[in-house]
Specification:
mainly alpha, 7 helices, binds protoporphyrin IX containing FE
Length: 140
Amino acid sequence: MKDIHSYWAYIVLAILIFTVVNAIIGLQQKKKFTDKDFRLGLFTLIVSHLQLLIGLGWYFMSPWYKALKDNGSEIMGDKTTRLLAVEHPTVMIIGIILITIGWSKHKKKTTDRAKFKTFALFYGLALLLILSRIPWNNWF
Ligand code: HEM
C-alpha cells in the first residue's frame, strides 16, 4: 500500500502541474476552453481522489496512526513524525478538497477565461499546499 501510494504520487504531481500550467497558459493567451482542458481537469480530479483513498487506506495500516493514538504528545513533539502522522495527511486532504471545489466551480462558469481562472486558482493553490507537505526526505 505504501509503495502504491509512493508511485501514484508521481502521477498525481505530474498531472496536477500540467493542469495548472495549462490553465495559466490558457488564461494568458486567451485560449478557448476545449474538451482537452475539460478532460485534463477531470483526470486530475480522479487521480487525486484515488490517491486520497490509497492514502487513507495506508494511513490506518501505517505505524503512524497507531503511534499517534498511543503516544500523541511524543509524535507531535518531533517534526519528522508530526509531518508523517498529522501534517501530511491533513494538508493533502485540504488540497484534494480544493481540487474538488475547483472542479465543481469551473462547471458553473460560462466563459473560457473564467474556467481557466478557476482551475489556475484552485488547482494551483492545491499544488502549493501539496508540495509544502510532501515528506521529500522519505520519498527520494
Ligand atoms: C495529493 C495527495 C497525496 C500525495 C501527492 C501524497 C504523496 C506522498 C508521498 C510522496 C509520500 C512519501 C512516500 C514514500 O515514503 O516513499 C507519502 C507518504 C505518506 N502519505 Fe501521502 N500523499 C497524498 C495524500 C495522502 C493522504 C490523503 C493520506 C492519508 C490520509 C496520506 C498518508 C500518507 C502517509 C501515512 C505517508 C507516510 C508513509 C510512511 O513513510 O510510512 N497521503 N505521501
